[in-house]
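Researcher: I'm preparing a figure for a lab meeting and need a structural model of a single chain. I don't have an experimental structure, so a prediction will have to do for now. The sequence is pasted below. Please return the structure as tokens so I can convert it later.
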Amino acid sequence: MKNVISALILLVLVSNAKSATLVVEGKYQNKNLFVQNFFGGSGVGFCALEVKVNGSITTDEVNSSAFEIDLAALKLKYGEKVTVEIVHKDGCMPKVLNVEDLKPKPSFEILTMNLTSNGLLKWTTKSEAGSLPFVIEQFKWNKWVPVGEVNGLGTPDKNEYSFQVTTHSGENKFRVKQIGLGALSKYSNPVMLNSSTQKPKLDISKESSMINFSYETAFEIYDVYGMVVKKGFAKDVKIENLARGKYYLCYDNQVTEFDKRR
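Model: Understood. Here is the structure written out token by token.
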């Protein structure tokens, strides 16, 4: 009778034991996950109870101080969405040591890329391992300048994209890039277009209160310390609030300097 009562007490304790779930999500990158497992809050047994991947319980052995979640055994496709649930005892928390291995990395390959005469940038890709934005960059003012963004589809099949750019006078160069974990970047080769657009004329008022272009253009104004004090896309730019001194003006594909005298 005593043994029966003990068994009943144990059963009640197990059924009332509280648990929580650690959820990790990402895309399969052909790598397994490694988990550091701690003792339970009571000091008896290990913290993790079971592991689910995409809703299915795995056969991973969790009764140790460290274990591996064998994603490769699940026949996942590269880039496939992965949701890992680690059910664990309340009062403790397992730690996934390489969670970054579920984060997408720039892996696209450019199949075609061209720029039409009216400024439509088109490109097709394959081998995307996860959804990352494509940043469109234009080379001007002696540097690559971000001018737009398009969300990547993130699938390994052929994907098509387009973005309307604004060209400046003379030779134009554009490229796309993706930025992954830890600022790891991947770039396309640039495409070029010679534009018939005329360079805008520039006039700075005598009282140093206004910059006038002959038509709207992208611009940036830097102080002598290299800090951007004004930027935008306009035909007329008010500068009356700038302190006196030397400034550098970037517009169209030009870099010049001017003195603010008042």
